[in-house]
Protein 1
Amino acid sequence: MVDEVKEEYYTVAFNIISNVGAAKSLVMEALYAAKEGEFKEAQEKLEESKQFFREGHKMHKSLIKREANGEQLQFSLILMHAEDQLMSVETISLLVTEIIELYKLSK
């Protein structure tokens, strides 16, 4: 039973990492597109990145709900890494969105 729970947490953590990693890649692609003046492409990349971020956030939220309902979660380095990636991508997304607006003003 313990191994099944641990495996489940690892699966959730890796899914968070995978989704937010895809989101981060798309956000950076959006930045590079905007730098070249391709603002429509940049906006499309940002929108696509939000879908991946939402999926990662949804998985993270499922763990929070479980703990709020009284389940004792076993934290691990991999789960902490997933949370770190989630927070980093959120920050990067906000900053890139603002940088893209600055690129628009300079073109």
Note: The chain has one domain: 1-106.
Protein 2
Amino acid sequence: MHNDENEEHWTDHAICRGADPDLFFPIGYSAEVLREQMDAAKAVCANCPVKAECLAWALRVGEPDGIWGGTTPEERRYLRRTADAPARRRLPVIVVRGDASESEHASAA
């Protein structure tokens, strides 16, 4: 794909463009003051016209820090895990010697 210098990019339309980056990169996500900062950043994202593109980018590159597309790093890890997780299937039951009761051993012999 040809990437022209004049071609627009989703980041050109991000409403966080020009905002204080510290708002989107709290030093933690659990302390009350940091939760307030995270909520403020997410409020900016909530009104952004390129929120979906931002989140898709952060998921694709595995962005480990900051608020991207209205999500925290933990929320993105969860989204990646659930999206990439293979379909679950029941595993066969494996009986290890000593696990079964004496009557089960007797009937198996």
Note: The longest helix spans residues 32-46.
Protein 3
Amino acid sequence: MNKNIFFERRLEILVMNALLRGGIPFIIMSGIALLLYFQGKYSDAKGTFVASLIAFFVGAASIIYNIEHWSLIKRSGVHFIIMLITIYPILLLSGWFTIASVFDAVKIFILFAFVGIILWSLFFILARIFSW
């Protein structure tokens, strides 16, 4: 098999997996947000939609850990950068936090990084226990 065809096919599979992993929760949660909106629960609808965006990007980016020829450090670094350019701005724009200064944005970044480290560590331990 031609190397380019193999690479293109593998890339197609990764993209499809990313869309499935991120898209399914996004569609379900966006549907819930829409129902809440039509019920007049605008704040709940917005929060649910924001959560659906976060679920989409986290789910889609998880395919990075399926790239076996990358080291764990590279996969983790790329995943962090993707989360930084997607999730962090969503958090800043979500309305979930009061942002009155740059210091507030830094505090949100610290929370973002802390939660990321905790979740990464948890999933690392679970992957070792269950041989994922």
Note: The chain has four helices and no strands.
